[in-house]
Fold:
Amino acid sequence: MFAKRRSAWERERDYQDPDQDLDWGLEDEGSEWDRYLDWVPTDERPIPKFKFPVVLPVVFGLVIGLAIAAQSSHTTFMQEAFGHLPHHHPRAVSTPPIHHRGRPTPTPTTPAGNPAAMDCTITVPENPLSARGLATPYQLGGGCSEANTDLQAFVQATILDPVTGTLSVYNPLVITAGTTPAAAPVVPTLPRHAIVDLLFGFNGNILTQVGTDDSLREGNCVNGLPGSPFGQVSYCNAAAFFRAANADIAAGRLRIPALGAGKDGLACPTTRDFTMIDQDQSDNVTSLYLLMANGQTAQKNTANSARLTGATTAANGSDNALLGFFLDPALGCTPMTAPDLSNPGQTSTSQALDELAAAASQAAPIALTPVNDPMTMVNGAFSIQKTDLYREGVDQPLLPGNTNAKANAQAYCTNLVNIQAPRLMLDKALTTAAQSPAAALGNSLFTFLAARLAGSFTNLNCQNYGLTNPVTLTMDGNGAATAAVLNTAPQTATGFPVRAAMASASPSASPSASPSATATVAPAASASATSSASASPSASASPSPSPGG
Structure:
């Protein structure tokens, strides 16, 4: 019933075509933990996606997908928590020569998609950074269909008026190649000197950008390194957008809202907070589409929702959506939004807005994409070059020239363990009372987040650095987590001298940032999931310097 899915490094190993000029350059059934699920509140049927092996009590290779139907201000999303390497095993790693800025190269015009392997193509229209380009539907190709929830692709634009510092959001439509939109996309009115950022997301495995004439060069599009795509994500014009946004911030034209404090008294989390990140932070988008029974798609906006009766909501797996639509409400926090030009009169979140907010206010230690993120590795090996290229797409500082890749990975794992587990326990009362993004996987937001941490630890190979998975899960007969025990005792990695190697690379906290929750929360060791989450922390964690700058 479930197709076997190869890991990213296996797929890169098995398919390398030296003649292509590339930009990016289940056997048996299992429990619900094994499946990639599509779930909506009014339809609690899990839709199997692909299978992953599980070893209890620790979740290995966990992948979670969710869909929550958008109603008024409550937005839909699918959250792929982690698991891009379902059959990942520890491998010897090597660090390619350091080259910080990879140059985007046009994608071949007709790369082969492989729906069975969950690989698809997406055609970028002409002049993608213009109003006309934004309103021209992107086409999902390679034999894939937007009607298949496993293979849906999404695009999200964030737009800056550099003269005034005004931000807006627009969600370009993706249609299946050979079809037409269920409703014509809204044509946005852009500022005269608009600078547009395009971020891509995908519910499958690898999404390859395909150009229309010279659209990839026009859009400054990046899919990864030659022969090694990021996988689900890619971007166009991100570096230029963030450079202009940061200039506007420095000039006082663009003001980023303060994070504020949550109900727990700590700073609200961001996408760069070790209290909520997973194995592949800053990935995928918050765009929403309407899906008709005949497979046609339309932008998700007020007018289309009223007119296209019977349509369902399609959404992309996103850490950003987990933060903005589940964790923020549970903690009493509010995500940054901007006017949505694809839904006139409404506001929306976006991945780029989340990154701007995180860059402005996240206090140290700051979680930045590490070299052991599965999306930044090359054939199972660490790649500083690919990690830098990924970071450039989400406005993260590049790795210092003297970065020790193994120390970078170790520091990330150490902070993940020592910072996330304590805050999960501190907020247990709040997240236990909150709706689970996927009841088939966890009976509350708390158990869902605990399982997500457990899987991230394994998929980042944190055990290679002398660390122990801090999470033990209790499952019911259907494979849903009903309880979690978190060991919150501070751990010390044994592989490399992280403090000495990384001290010079640790970023400074923003002067305006709220006091960091991540540096101070550390409840008593081995706290049970049944203990009170309102208890004050009894110890102070000593975080490793933020890995890699």
